[in-house]
Please model this.
Amino acid sequence: QLDPDNTGFIGVETFASLVHSHELPLDPAKLDMLVALAQGNDEGQVCYQELVDLISSKRSSSFKRAIANGQRALPRDVLLDETGLGFYKRFVRYVAYEILPCEMDRRWYFYQHRTCPPPVFMAAVTLTQIIVFLCYGARLNKWVLQTYHPEYMKSPLVYHPGHRARAWRFLTYMFMHVGLEQLGFNALLQLMIGVPLEMVHGILRISFLYLAGVLAG
Model:
């Protein structure tokens, strides 16, 4: 009825009146994004497919382009103005502002992160790295520049050019660290960035991305 020519687009004003008269409430954050996206195109229209993508938590290519080009405006206050947040929500907002450059990206991240299922992959990898480091530190009696110890390269976990046939070494070297400085830096990045990303994208995506980085390294 609203799109008699079946173009897939309707005007922002028509969409706004439809939202106000609709009996089922929609996510305000997603409405912000949809209106901002409509304000970014030449015709100022709402696209049906973009609405479907947002409601189903998918980010369409046009939405990504709108973010990349900066062609959108926020009808609401910025995320920093939201008050009454608990410690955990404030931490998520802090991560969003530290990592993401665009306000729309920050809002999308803030409202899309999930605690269930919990981000176990990055936490498990970090914990394993700490345990392995402590074991080798106690075994070698060396906590800084462990690679200088003659026994370090004998570890079955280290990548060794002479043992390329042992395929597991291409992955297990991620558990070995030079010293406390490298371990601390890696653990901090994994927990501060990896865990929040896993809460948005899930264990499969993040584990694939992380392991791909390990193999590339």
Notes: The two ends are 55 Å apart (CA to CA). Confidence is low (pLDDT under 50) at residues 69-77. The longest helix spans residues 180-216.
